[in-house]
Amino acid sequence: MRLNSLKLRHFRNYDELDLTFSKDLVIFLGENAQGKTNLLESIYVLAMTRSHRTTNEQELIEWNYPDAYLGGIIEKKQQQIPLELGLTKKGRKTKVNHIEQKKLSSYIGQLNVILFAPEDLSLVKGTPQLRRKFLDMEIGQIDSVYLYNLVQYQQVLKQRNHYLKQLAEKKQTDPLYLDILTEQLVTFGSKILWTRINFVKQLEYWANALHQTISQKKEELTLQYEVTVPFQSVTTIEEIESAYNQAFQAIRSKELFRQMTLIGPHRDELIFFINGKNVQTYGSQGQQRTTALSIKLAEIDLMKAETGEYPILLLDDVMSELDDSRQVHLLEAIEGKVQTFLTTTTLEHVRDKMTVQPAIYHVNQGKLEGENTE
């Protein structure tokens, strides 16, 4: 998969921008606060329809303009496919091959991206919410059904929490509706859990192989998906549903007291282990960073296995955050494999370690000047 061109109109600090990419490595070079990260963000938004930096879409639109436009032509399976995304105060409008897409799941997955930013080094030691978001974003790109189930689950969860509060405050007296909401939550939650468990197994397979290479086979990386309901078996979705139903019956009074849904995928956790020890709790900073790097790089091969195409890699100023050894492993893992867009304030960390000639764009206050771009 490749991104052959990018077009921006009133996105962040870019009034108008048209770029064509012919090389596998594209470097955006410049000082901080000049717009380098905005360029990577635009590619991410074009792929995912939302930003990794903000939940307020108005921040993506250039100051004093009513809307923003992002467009690109991707190449996959020997086809050229135009993607378009419009952002307005009323919402988003997406097009694939000039045809408007009514469903988000019909658009996401057309362009697969993996973003690696300095904050991703906190994937291991950050909050459980951060790791759940990681799972949702990555699975959603390769499984449109998962994305649908997730949206439905979140809607029912919001309704159920609201109704629990109303029952607890005696504003509602019909527990039957709570049963209906619980049944819906179990249906969607079981499918989400089933998909996550299988995804984590695949991720562990690819990540452990990379981690052993980086650690020179001194460390073995394992992943554990920790659920809020103890399952005797998870060989079928039906068994998950049964366990969820029993658990919800057992904690109903506790949920009414707390006025919230206490079990389900929204409270699950992803745990990382090195040689059997919890990396979040007992791992050194180096081990935590190596784990995060292994996980991000594993996504490349996992997406290739699932979709038949390598994703596009976005590296936002991470080279300076990694030591020389991890830099080398990162670059070896991507060379000749994926189209990569990289931001940096200096070429010191990149130039001597790359065997390919990159296209370099000097970024200064939202203006670009190209070098080796043909």
From TrEMBL:
Key words, A-Z: ATP-binding, Cytoplasm, DNA damage, DNA repair, DNA replication, DNA-binding, Nucleotide-binding, SOS response
Binding residues for ATP: 30-37
Gene3D superfamilies per UniProt: P-loop containing nucleotide triphosphate hydrolases (3.40.50.300), RecF/RecN/SMC, N-terminal domain (1.20.1050.90)
RecF/RecN/SMC N-terminal domain mapped to chain residues: 3-366
PROSITE patterns documented for this protein: RECF_1, RECF_2
Compartments reported by the entry: Cytoplasm
Stored CDD domains: ABC_RecF
InterPro entries in the record: DNA-binding_RecF, DNA-binding_RecF_CS, P-loop_NTPase, RecF/RecN/SMC_N, RecF_2
Pfam families, per the entry: SMC_N
The keyword ATP-binding appears for this protein: yes
Assigned protein family: Belongs to the RecF family.
Free-text function comment from the UniProt entry: The RecF protein is involved in DNA metabolism; it is required for DNA replication and normal SOS inducibility. RecF binds preferentially to single-stranded, linear DNA. It also seems to bind ATP.
Xref: NCBIfam families: recf
HAMAP family reported in the protein's UniProt record: RecF
Official protein name in the record: DNA replication and repair protein RecF
Organism: Enterococcus camelliae
Gene: recF
